[in-house]
Each structure stands twice: as structure tokens, then as C-alpha cells.
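Format notes (please read before filing issues)

Several people have asked whether sequences and C-alpha cells are stored in separate files. They are not. Every record keeps both together, in the order shown below: the sequence lines, then the C-alpha cell lines. Line labels are part of the format and must not be stripped during preprocessing.
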Amino acid sequence: MTPIRIVVLISGSGSNLQAIIDGCKSGQINGSIAAVISNKADAYGLTRAKLADIHTEVLDHKAFASRDAYDNALADVINQFSPDLVVLAGFMRILTPDLVQKFKGKMLNIHPSLLPKYQGLNTHQRAIDANDAEHGVSVHFVTEELDGGPVIVQAKVAIESNETAQSLAEKVHVQEHVIYPLVVQWFSEHRLTMEAEHAVLDNQVVPAQGVNYP
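Then the structure lines:
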């Protein structure tokens, strides 16, 4: 089976990037990261990539007059590496529909909530404020709708009575670092596709809220 080529987009520390780097190194993922692209030059994830001898690019969104202009340039940079899969790992920008269409069916995102709950930001505090009993994380295909593409897998964590947004975030991060490499693995093994706005795993349509992990 031909190894896949992956491009990872980041804006920050890159802990999910590290989990995917480790998954490629261990052989869990049948592929390699061709490039890591950041919109911020000081993102620590760039250091993680360099330590792993992965090519890096910085494309500063502040240097562009519009979101469309930035995303057009970003698409050109991504395409230089001929990726089979584009992974958003803490890339803190809302993508234009045109960019999403270019990579539809081969772009993944991870979101710290049990989608469709709590799209957008501040998900941990919002779950606590709503007195939810559980919270978690979702990996999904990217579509034009913000945090609205087909969910592939979700992992849940309990919300304790004394939970803070920080403690909840830490529990969710542990799950993120397991399920994101797992989904990339499925894609690399040609077991996961997106068809007609649904995620399909092992030739079965995935339920609307994804596969529960574990």
C-alpha cells in the first residue's frame, strides 16, 4: 500500500502535530508528513517539525489584504507538496469555501467538543456552564460549515463537580492525542472516505455523531 503524503496546518504549540509525527514514526500511520505550514512564525509546532526533519513554511495572514487572497496563496503552498491528506491541527483560521472545496474529502479537523454541540471557541467553559455531565472531542471532515463537516470519531470525558476549563481541557487533550492519529491511520489505510456528505469507514456510513472511542 502506497504511503500517503500529509500536510499539517498549525497556529500554535502543535501537540496534535506531535501525536501525528509519532504515529508516522511508529508505523501506526502509513504515511509521512511532507510539510508543516503555520500562519504564525512563532508557533512552537514549527520547532517540533524541524526536530523531526519535516519541511516547514510560514504564511503570515497579516501580510494579505483579504481572507480570499490568503487562502488562495495557502492553497498554492499546500499544492506544492501534492498531499493526499491535509490535517488542521490547531490552525486558528476560518477557511474560505473555495479553499475547502479544493481539498474536500481529504481535509480533517479536530474540535474540542462533542459536535454538533459547541461549535466555535471556549468549548470547555461552555460545557461546564451548561452543567453537562460529559464533554469531549470530535474529528471530522472539513466542509464549508464551521465545525460542521461529517464527524468521524468522538471521545468522551466526564465533567467533575469541581471541573475548571483548564482541567477539562487537559483531559480532552489526552483523548485528542489518541483519536487524531487513529483517524489519520484509517485514512492512510484507505479505510476512511467522505462520500455524499457522510464519513464512510470500512464501507459503512458513520453515524452522525461519529464512532465512539474507545
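For reference, the curators noted about this record: The longest strand covers residues 31-38. The domain at 109-214 is CATH 3.40.50.170 (Rossmann fold).
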